[in-house]
Amino acid sequence: MAIVMSMRWAGVTPQQYDEVKxxxxxxxxxxxxxxxxxxxxxxxxxxxxxxWETAEDFQRFAEAELRPGxxxxxxxxxxxVEILPAHNVFAPQPARx
Length: 97
Description:
CATH topology: Alpha-Beta Plaits
CATH class: Alpha Beta
Shape: globular
Order of helices and strands: EHEEHE
Number of strands: 4
Strand order of the largest sheet: 2-3-1-4
Largest sheet: 4 strands, antiparallel
Number of helices: 2
Radius of gyration: 13 Å
Helix content: 25-40%
Strand content: 25-35%
CATH architecture: 2-Layer Sandwich
């Protein structure tokens, strides 16, 4: 069953996010089980919403790839993460940002 992962990480900047993205390379090498990813910033930090095939796929990626990238980028602290079962997933085409 697909899941929605919602993350809020206070204090993370766009530059730090971009550095993690470069280190991990998840856009070049798609992680197993990844379906959808969007990142945004509010006045407090980073917000991420992902869709994954399973919670285990997300956990495996977070532990094996994301955490080392976050540490290499010098990001400290822990994010608030919520995982919910997806009721529906619809992604007709990627947005151009």
